[in-house]
């Protein structure tokens, strides 16, 4: 179910006016409520915002600069500041997004093109929290708006980097799909993931049963909004895809945070998945 959701998900910026059924709203609210912590241990809070019960002024304060058309629900999230907070947010928010997809709903990560103040008010953002991103949720329209098409084209959203740029063996040779064995599909699920401006900054090194996750910051790409560095959020998304896909295939494991000290140049160590066979 989750692997299919990963394969089907895309950023939807043009929504159909059809409202989300009450059962689906309730299911989504339950999912958000139960999603309270990421692998680094940062506390997460998610809320579903419904424009239908808000005043015009409140809705205006939650603008998306014309990027999102027709959505009446948004998932808003907050994370307690601290080490790993942005990765945990990416991990938690992406779980919401995949569960929404599994309910037949469309979404879009928004880390830049949304008004922070309005959404911060909706969730009652506290001083010790960050609000890295929001996501509209609903039914996708048949035709994409002009803004949607321009953004997709600008980011090259239909393309992904090839395996040899993303996945490596312990000698830093390109990891062959055959060598990855049963982990080829979880790795492919990382590759299919969303990332800010589609920069795909995830780099994974396989060392037997260990998968080391690194961040290669895109040179010259700001991708940040004050304390919110979106490429760290991207890493959490990759972690969630890999873990969820592995578990769905019956391959258990856990996260470890112990830099193996490999010579990775500018890559920043994030986490290691330890597969338990
Ligand atoms: C952390 C993050 C922030 C993003 N911020 C925005 C945004 O502010 N506005 C937008 O239109 N798309 C945003 N996106 C969507 C990406 O552009 C999109 O995921 C990427 O181009 C790949 O396309 P796809 O999601 O359709 O596969 C964001 C994605 C991520 C993961």
Major sheet summary line = 5 strands, antiparallel
- The percentage of residues in β strands lies in 15-25%
Bound heterogens, unique: flavin mononucleotide
**In the CATH hierarchy, what is the architecture of the largest domain at level 2?**
3-Layer(aba) Sandwich
Secondary-structure blueprint:
Layout: H1 2-8, H2 22-34, E1 44-50, H3 56-60, E2 73-80, H4 85-102, E3 106-107, H5 116-123, E4 129-130, E5 134-138, H6 146-155, H7 163-166, E6 167-169, H8 177-180, H9 184-191, E7 202-207, E8 210-215, E9 224-225, E10 228-229, H10 230-248, E11 252-256, E12 268-276
Parallel strand pairs: 6-7
Antiparallel strand pairs: 1-2, 2-4, 2-5, 3-5, 7-8, 8-12, 9-10, 11-12
Helix pairs in contact: 1-4, 4-10, 9-10
Bound molecules: flavin mononucleotide.
Give a description of the structure.
With 277 residues, this protein is α+β, with helices and mostly antiparallel strands. The protein has 2 domains: 147 residues, NADH Oxidase, CATH 3.40.109; 114 residues, NADH Oxidase. It contains 10 helices and 12 strands. The strands form 3 sheets. Strands 1, 2, 3, 4 and 5 form a 5-stranded antiparallel beta sheet that branches. It has a 5-stranded mixed beta sheet with strand order 6-7-8-12-11. A hairpin with a 2-residue loop joins strand 7 and strand 8. Helix 1 crosses helix 4. It is globular, with a radius of gyration of 18 Å. The model has no long low-confidence stretch (mean pLDDT 96). Bound molecules: flavin mononucleotide. The site of flavin mononucleotide (FMN) has 23 residues, from helix 6 and helix 10.
């Amino acid at each position: 179910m989750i692997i299919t959701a990963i394969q089907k998900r895309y950023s939807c910026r043009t929504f159909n006016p059809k409202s989300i059924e009450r059962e689906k709203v309730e299911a989504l609210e339950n999912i958000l409520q139960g999603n309270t912590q990421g692998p680094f241990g940062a506390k997460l809070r998610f809320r579903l915002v419904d424009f239908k019960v808000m005043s015009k002024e409140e809705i205006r304060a939650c603008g998306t600069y014309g990027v999102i058309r027709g959505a009446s629900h948004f998932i808003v999230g907050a994370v307690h500041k601290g080490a790993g907070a942005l990765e945990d947010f990416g991990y938690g928010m992406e779980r919401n997004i995949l569960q929404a997809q599994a309910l037949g709903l469309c979404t879009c990560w928004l880390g830049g093109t949304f008004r922070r103040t309005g959404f911060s008010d909706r969730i009652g953002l506290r001083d010790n929290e960050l609000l890295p991103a929001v996501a509209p949720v609903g039914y996708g329209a048949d035709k994409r708006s002009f803004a949607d098409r321009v953004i997709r084209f600008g980011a090259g959203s239909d393309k992904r980097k090839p395996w040899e740029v993303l996945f490596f063996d312990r000698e830093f040779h390109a990891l062959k799909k055959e060598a990855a064995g049963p982990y080829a599909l979880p790795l492919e699920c990382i590759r299919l993931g969303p990332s800010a401006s589609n920069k795909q900054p995830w780099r994974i090194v396989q060392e037997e049963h260990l998968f080391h996750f690194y961040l290669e910051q895109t040179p010259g790409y700001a991708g940040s909004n004050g304390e919110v560095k979106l490429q760290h959020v991207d890493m959490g998304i990759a972690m969630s895809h890999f873990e969820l896909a592995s578990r769905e295939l019956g391959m258990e494991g856990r996260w470890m945070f112990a830099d193996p000290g490999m010579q990775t140049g500018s890559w920043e160590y994030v986490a290691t998945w330890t597969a338990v066979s």
